[in-house]
Design a protein that fits this description.
Strand content: 15-25%
Number of strands: 13
Distance between the termini: 108 Å
């Protein structure tokens, strides 16, 4: 009887041990099953998981400093500022009192790009200063025009009239070419290769026109003292002169498109590419056309 009783108790102990051992094994195996399931996931599923984690991480915004002339360049940049913000680029617009300092500022790495000049001007400065710059986008043309406070039409330009023109090489050539296109003077051959000319390069001047070579920025202020002046449109806008009052101006085929300029080697920076893309977008074209009319013409 005692033997049967102890046998029964021993059997119960054995069964209890087996049950406890079985539970422990199941618990220990659970992580292994989870790990194996993870390892068995397809490469596509693992990639999706990684991309989801990366997209969840906030992207750090990049600051891009662009030097610009006040009008229309800085105004156009202000328009694209929120568009760049959406793409993770904080656009900082730098306007200097002296636009002639924008290329030195780019060279000295005070700014990342500039937007105020056209290719002939850039080429003349690069040759003079030895800058290693690159053009990344053509944005707009500002057709130069002939303005006067004394004359109402081109035919009113009298014999011996005095005309003020810009005194920097590329814009001086540009002004003289405009007068040539209007049949008022004739320049010697071959100047188109250098984009440079002065009144000394005039070979025919039937009206005996006189020329005053003036710093571009002061042209609007000398209008009362001359019969007329050929002025860049950005300066006309800054001076509050109605661009529609030009007696004549360049057409839309002008080669003097205003450009984005960077240091050579920076063309492939992602933030520069984003800047170029928004500046030649349909939104910017409409903004330019609506805001400036004939004074500023999109070059894209």
């Amino acid at each position: 009887m005692k033997t049967t009783k102890w046998t029964f108790i021993s059997a119960l102990i054995l069964m209890f041990s087996l049950i406890v051992s079985g539970c422990g094994t199941a618990a220990n195996n659970a992580p292994a099953i989870s790990t194996e399931a993870s390892a068995a996931a397809s490469p596509a599923e693992q990639t999706q998981s990684t991309e989801a984690s990366a997209s969840a991480a906030p992207q750090e915004a990049v600051t891009l400093k662009v030097g610009a002339a006040p009008v229309p360049h800085a105004e156009i940049l202000e328009f694209v500022k929120p568009l760049l913000k959406e793409q993770g680029v904080n656009l900082e617009i730098v306007v200097l009192d002296d636009e002639g300092q924008l290329n030195p500022a780019l060279f000295e790495k005070q700014i990342d790009a500039n937007y105020f000049q056209h290719v002939p001007y850039l080429d003349s400065i690069k040759g003079e200063k030895g800058y290693d710059f690159a053009v990344t986008a053509k944005v707009h043309v500002e057709p130069i025009g002939f303005y006067s406070e004394k004359l109402k039409a081109k035919d009113d330009i009298a014999d011996g009239a005095t005309i003020a023109i810009p005194n920097n090489p590329s814009n001086e050539y540009r002004a003289l070419v405009l007068l040539e296109q209007q049949g008022l003077i004739k320049l010697k051959e071959g100047l188109e290769n250098t984009y440079e000319a002065t009144p000394k390069d005039i070979v025919d001047n039937p009206k005996n026109l006189k020329f005053e070579e003036v710093d571009s920025a002061t042209l609007p202020r000398v209008l009362p003292d001359v019969d007329g002046a050929i002025i860049n449109t950005n300066l006309v806008l800054e001076a509050g002169i109605d661009p529609n009052t030009a007696l004549f101006r360049e057409d839309a085929e002008s080669p003097y498109a205003n450009i984005i300029v960077v240091r050579s080697g920076d063309e492939n920076r992602e933030e520069i590419k984003k800047l170029d893309a928004v500046l030649v977008s349909p939104e910017v074209k409409k903004f330019i056309q609506d805001k400036y009319g004939v004074a500023v013409v999109p070059a894209f």
